[in-house]
Amino acid sequence: MLRERIADLSSFVEPDRVRREVYVDPEIFELEMQRIHERYWIYCGHESQVPKPGDYYAVQIGRQPMLMVRGKDKKIHVLYNRCPHRGNMMCGDRNGNAGEFFRCSYHAWTFHHDGKLRSIPMMESGYTGTRFTRDNPDCSMKKAPRVEAYRGFVFASLVAEGSSLLEFLGESKVAFDDMCDRAPEGQVEIVPNCFRVIQHSNWKIFLENQLDALHPSVTHQSTGRAAHEVEQEIARKAKKGAAPLSYHMLSAFATVTVDKWDAFQTLSYPYGHCILTGYMGLRPQDPDTLAYDDLMIKAYGRKRFEAIVGVNIHHVLIYPGLSVQSALQQLRAVRPLGVDRTLTEIWHFRLKGAPEAIYRRSLAYYNLVNSPATLVNADDLENFWKCHQGLASDGGDWVSFGRHHGRDIEKNGVIESAPDMGTSEAPMRNQMKAWVQYMQG
Ligand code: FES
Ligand SMILES: [Fe+2]
What we know:
alpha+beta, binds fe (ii) ion
């Protein structure tokens, strides 16, 4: 039945609106997994998650359980988490160290870190004359056909052909440059655990929210106002008159009003990637920031330092599965679990060579804005769930992305929101335009 409807998928998406089935139809979801998530470059993790040979991390790519593993030769491999004998999952834990080799818990077949068969117990007596020979690739763990990394961020694609990671990322690679350049040593390292949130909504609802500059002033206003009141109270009582920066991270949701968000800009690129410019004013002149600035100037020289900290990005969305806040060293990886269930992994990073206080700033933002414990996240999650519920109903057929439609400015393949229209729904239009191209193969 779906086959007959595939030809019509493009009719589900118009330039300024999308049919609700795109979010709630399980068959469309299955097709998305085949044509998007199991085909294009999906973020697996950061190299620093697997520093030693045998270190592995389990990661979901589309519907496929995979392992990112460090080999003895220091190379990173991405393997299907499956034993070729009877299909047993090789690693049941989320992460760990496999030791010298993988050993299946069922019948003890062993594999090198690159997935190649190492041994089958009693191979001679059991398999002589059968199809199971050491050089039969079916006896090894299957590998992701393509694995590439950019500045330590590892991606895999489950098909052999296609554009390179850098071609695919295009301008969105600035997410990783901006993050790493802010480190005096030019690198970041993972903080080795993440928050995991299961959203009861379709994966695209989360991605569309990431560059929705209109919603913070509404959805997060109550949180922002509460934080702002406390911030002012502290400032009144404190001799030097300022509340800690962490209050600003929350109060900005009230003090950055719609007109200020409109002053930012959205930039939309091929493949559905998008950037929201703007910066919440996280360059105060406190002693911690000044100490950090000194280290950066020593490492890069003043001119380059100014260029690095002057990069003006609030958010980079790398379609179809990554949302990066580079200036705050955090990212969210999106793992669709079902048409109405989406796992997000929320990670943050340390700037190598930066003072501890700068890391604490990133940690504060991680906890206050992006963690499952914060009201900011809770208010978003409630919207996502309610959107999915509404879209599953017969109350209407279309989702509207019409805000500032027709006013976008196209320059060399990049679509810019028009001046003072930062709350444009251009990024959502761009994501859905790319979605049709992906789905049509
Ligand atoms: S299933 Fe893995 S060795 Fe049998
Ligand atoms: Fe939000």
